[in-house]
Amino acid sequence: MTKRKNEGPIDTVINYIQDEITKKNVLPGDKLPSERKLSELLGVGRPHIRAALQKLETYGLVETRPQSGTIVTEFTKEQLDSMMAETLKLEKYDFYSLVHVRVLLEIDACELAARNCTIEDIDRVERTLRELEECTNPETRVEKDFAFHHELARSSHNPVLVDLLGIIVPDIMRYYHKYRFCSVPERRVDAEHSEYVAKLRAHDEKGMRQLVLTHLKNQINFAKQQ
């Protein structure tokens, strides 16, 4: 596959699937290759695959079914064109605007997570945290950081918040990779990640709100400087 100029890893996945749909290599009802196969085929990490598929699912082009994988849905050409137009539109947004929206969404998502999380949710969050803490590769660390925050959002049990974050996170990740932000472990950041888990266990909604603001403060300031 030929990589397009200035194409990020998530764009690579979206463009590949778009091309496959346009060329009718995959039709409505067809199952897409697994995350592992797409990762090997396109040479991008599985977190990027998941982010791209979530974005496509938000626009109604694919559907993830338990035990069945990701299926191409019945969609119109207008839906496909709309999704690509919105993707291009997002790329025009500046880093700070995207980060600002992320903070607003994560405050609500994390407060709800503290209220609604189950034991299974906490186990998933802790698992992704361990993977993040064990990661030393700068590129992969960014992906695993967002995977951790994605599991926090899922614990809110509000799919709308999760989908909205899914739309903007790929574009924020593009800036992260560009500026190499959050690619190196920091003791303070690692401690705050552990604090997220503690506040989930304590169902501390108020504390969770303050933690989000504290944790993302550096990102807000960094985005302003860019």
* Strand line-up of the largest beta sheet: 1-2
Q: Kindly, what is the distance between the CA atoms of the first and last residues, rounded to a whole number of angstroms?
A: 33 Å
What summary fits the major beta sheet?
2 strands, antiparallel
Radius of gyration: 18 Å
Helix content: over 70%
Mean pLDDT: 82
The secondary structure category is: mainly alpha
Number of strands: 2
Oligomer: single chain
The poorly predicted ranges are none
Shape: globular
Distinct helical segment count: 11
In terms of DSSP E residues, the strand content is: under 5%
Characterise this structure.
- The chain is mainly α and 226 residues long.
- It contains 11 helices and 2 strands; from the N terminus they run αααββαααααααα.
- It has helices spanning 9-22, 35-42, 46-58, 77-90, 95-116, 119-134, 138-154, 159-179, 187-202, 205-215, 217-225, and strands at residues 62-65, 69-72.
- It has a two-stranded antiparallel sheet with strand order 1-2.
- Helix 3 (46-58) packs across helix 8 (159-179) and helix 5 (95-116) packs across helix 8 (159-179).
- 33% of the residues are buried.
- The mean pLDDT is 82.
